[in-house]
Every structure is written in structure tokens, then in C-alpha cells.
Design goal:
CATH superfamily of the largest domain: Kelch-type beta propeller
Distance between the termini: 118 Å
Number of domains: 3
Shape: elongated
Largest sheet: 4 strands, antiparallel
CATH topology of the largest domain: Neuraminidase
Low-confidence stretches: 109-133, 138-155, 169-179
Length: 443
């Protein structure tokens, strides 16, 4: 009998021919039977499978459409995850420090055999191993980490330096004088203040020159700060190198132009100064002597260690009381309504059209190979292609600082001139906090 002649009772899944249908029904004592040819049943199954595939494709298309409409920001999600990891890492570091304190108390009699340096697991922590951070939550788990046998350091700084030396993980731990501190040169005095960012402790030192208003200051090589210009009845040319370890100053060759409200930066092997106000002498009339006049300048110059050199290129706009930072071997200059990028290789400026309508002071900081911009109540960022996007909002702030900013871990520290206060901004938690206020002395 061919396939068309074979029948199937669906409820009982038995094949039968037409001649035995009655016998089948009598066997089960029921007439409610769905008996169809097998060929028709196969066609039904094929159609059903096809409908299922179409339904799945339809659902998939709906999901894709929903995802596109939601416009999920992958970068934002990644930052949120990094923030969580950063919190775990900070908490874990405190737990590790507590364990070390307990260990030091337990081994006072045999300090030579003390346990002090964390082994390979700390290497994983330093490299942001998410799986490891997720698995370590308690003090008991941390205490099981393998330690190496060395002397216990006398302070946390020595501990960190020893860890860095042992594991060679590329983390920078600075000793005193290196920029774990912010520095403030008090105008009208011969005094510089050092503010420790972790404790808020402030120490002042006498220096060999009188500080002026609106100088250009930046961090230099080998534990130094570069101090240039400033206003004292008129713009000045004087430049100094301040040693953050010995607190000594060295006067170097003056700048070509008198400048104040300008910006300075070090990008190996040069110190650069950009913009600001320049002071010139002008004759008002034939019967009156020359007087000093101040006006904005778009010019720039650089110090090569021996002489100052004029840069042939100029900024496209006036750059007064602006902010400056280095990122990926280029110099970013932030004015009140613009950002320009200076390329030392080609000695040229590129103007970025960020469509800022309102003029506001800003602070630019290099962080994780990108430029973070603090402006008004908005935190923005320039990516590697110089595309600007908003990353957060904070309280309205007058962003004006003449002191170099400092990046330490996930935090950015700056001293705001208008408030005389040190602030920290946690990049991952999007949180701005006051650290301390300046305790200035006018004796």
C-alpha cells in the first residue's frame, strides 16, 4: 500500500488502513478519533515548523528594533561597570592595609620574617581583573593570599614602593615632593604652600622670589615646577624652576614677552607658554611719556633649556585665563568658548568646533588617554578622535585654577582660585567633593 493509503490515528499514534478503522475504534471504545493520511500529517508538521521559524525571526526583528530605539550607550555602561570595580578595589585595598597593620603587631619580635608583600594576586588587582575582584569580598579571603618574606615597611608609602618594585606592575607611587601634592604660590608673598591630597595637611616654604598674580605654572621633569610671568603693576617676563624636594628655586632666562593670565605646560623636551595678556609700551602723545599697556596675545613661545623660541603659529582666538593639558603627545588649550589642539610635530593649531554658545571658564585634565573638560555644571570629554560628549553634571562652579591639577587613581584634584579650596572629582562615581580650604598666612 502506498503512502497516501496509510492512515494514522493521532491520539493513539497508530498507523492503520481503511479496512481496520472500525476495529480500531471498537478497540478503544470511542469514536472521537482524528485519523489523517500520513502524507497530509507531514505537510502539517512542515507548515508548523515554518511558522515557528517565521515567529522567531519576527521576535528577533522586534528585539533589534527595541535596542535601536533605546540607543544604549555602551561607553556609559562600561564606565558604570568600571566604577563598581573601582569601589571594590578601594574597599579591598583598605582591607589589605588593615591586615598588614594586624600583621605588624603580631610580628614585632621577629620583624625580619614578617609577611609584607602581596604576590601575584595583587598583580591581578592592579590590572583590574574583574573576575578576581568579584571573588574576593571578605577579610578571611584576603588573608589567604600568598605573601613573600620581606621586612615590613615603616609606612604605607614604603609598602607601596616595595610592592611596585617586587611586582613591576607600572603603578606610580610618589615619595615626598612628587605630585601627590598640590602647590600654591601665594601672590604678594615669597611663600609656596604644599597641600597633601590624602590628608589635607598644608605646609608653607619660603622661596627666593615674590609671587605675582596670574602666573603660568606647570609640573616639570625631575620633581620640579615651572613658574613664569605674572602681573605686578604690569606683566613680567621672569621665570623660575622650583624643586619640590629641596624647595630651592632657580631663575632661568626671561620669556620674550611680558605675560600674565597665560598658560604653561611641559612636553618633553620643552616648556611652552601660550596666550594670556602681554604688556607693551606705547606713546599716548608726543608730550606724554610711554606707558605700559596690556592687551591679549595669541602668540606662544617655548624654552629649550637654553633659550626662548617664538612659535611661528598663533592661536585663532584670544587665550586668556584658559586651561591646558597634554594628551597623546598633543597640547589641548581650553578657552571660554573654544578648544584648540597644538601639534608639536607640525607646530600647528587645530580649532575644534564644540558649539559652545555661552562663554564659561573651564579646566582641562588628561585622564586615561582622553581629555576631561570641567565647564560650568557640565563634565564633558574628548575621545581619541576629538569628538566631544557629555559625561556628567555637578553643581555650578567657577572653573578657574592657576595651579597644576593632579590625577591620582580614579580621582582628579584641583585648587580653585575663586574659592581657595581643593576639590576632588571621582571620575567613575561622577562625584565632586571638597578636600580642604587653603589656610593662607599674610605675615
Amino acid at each position: 500500500m502506498n503512502e497516501d493509503g496509510i492512515l494514522l490515528c493521532i491520539p493513539h499514534k497508530e498507523s492503520l488502513c481503511e479496512s481496520c478503522i472500525d476495529i480500531h475504534i471498537a478497540k478503544y471504545e470511542s469514536s472521537d478519533h482524528k485519523i489523517v493520511p500520513i502524507k497530509i500529517l507531514k505537510e502539517i508538521e512542515e507548515n508548523y515548523n515554518l511558522e515557528q521559524q517565521l515567529e522567531k525571526q519576527k521576535i528577533r526583528n522586534i528585539l533589534i528594533k527595541m535596542l535601536n530605539e533605546e540607543k544604549i550607550d555602551i561607553k556609559t555602561k562600561a564606565v558604570e561597570v568600571l566604577g563598581i570595580l573601582s569601589q571594590r578595589k578601594d574597599k579591598l585595598k583598605k582591607t589589605i592595609d588593615d591586615i598588614f597593620d594586624k600583621k605588624k603587631q603580631e610580628i614585632e619580635q621577629s620583624i625580619q620574617n614578617a609577611i609584607n608583600v602581596i604576590d601575584s594576586h595583587l598583580y591581578q588587582i592592579a590590572n583590574n581583573s574583574s573576575s578576581f575582584l568579584a571573588s574576593i569580598n571578605t577579610e578571611e579571603q584576603v588573608s589567604k593570599i600568598v605573601f613573600t618574606d620581606k621586612k615590613v615597611p615603616l609606612s604605607n608609602i614604603e609598602l607601596e614602593e616595595l610592592i611596585d618594585e617586587e611586582l613591576d606592575i607600572g603603578i606610580k607611587f610618589y615619595s615626598e615632593g612628587r605630585p601627590e601634592c598640590l602647590y600654591y604660590f601665594q601672590p604678594g608673598t615669597s611663600r609656596v604652600f604644599k597641600i597633601e591630597i590624602l590628608t589635607g595637611k598644608q605646609t608653607s616654604y619660603e622661596i627666593d622670589f615674590t609671587c605675582k598674580d596670574h602666573p603660568g605654572i606647570c609640573i616639570g621633569p625631575d620633581n620640579t615646577l615651572f613658574y613664569s610671568g605674572g602681573w605686578e603693576d604690569r606683566g613680567t617676563k621672569n621665570c623660575y624652576i622650583f624643586d619640590c624636594c629641596t624647595y630651592d628655586t632657580q631663575e632661568i632666562q626671561p620669556m620674550i614677552k611680558r605675560r600674565f593670565q597665560h598658560s604653561a605646560i611641559y612636553l618633553k623636551p620643552y616648556f611652552y607658554v601660550f596666550g594670556g595678556m602681554k604688556t607693551i609700551k606705547s606713546t599716548m602723545s608726543k608730550n606724554k611719556p610711554k606707558v605700559a599697556l596690556d592687551k591679549p596675545t595669541k602668540s606662544a613661545e617655548r624654552w629649550n633649556g637654553k633659550n626662548w623660541e617664538r612659535l611661528r603659529c598663533k592661536l585663532s582666538e584670544n587665550f586668556v585665563k584658559g586651561s591646558i593639558c597634554e594628551c597623546n603627545n598633543k597640547i589641548y588649550l581650553g578657552g571660554k568658548s573654544f578648544v584648540e589642539v597644538f601639534d608639536p610635530q607640525s607646530s600647528s593649531f587645530t580649532h575644534l568646533d564644540l558649539k559652545w554658545e555661552k562663554k564659561l571658564s573651564c579646566v582641562l585634565v588628561s585622564f586615561n588617554n582622553s581629555v576631561v573638560i570641567f565647564r560650568g555644571k557640565t563634565i564633558g570629554q574628548l575621545d581619541e578622535n576629538n569628538i566631544y560628549y557629555k559625561t556628567g553634571s555637578i553643581m555650578e562652579t567657577e572653573w578657574c585654577t592657576s595651579s597644576p591639577c593632579l590625577v591620582s587613581g580614579a580621582k582628579i584634584f584641583f585648587l580653585l582660585d575663586m574659592k581657595g579650596c581643593v576639590y576632588s572629582y571621582n571620575y567613575y562615581l561622577r562625584k565632586l567633593e571638597a578636600v580642604c580650604s587653603l589656610k593662607l598666612s599674610f605675615n
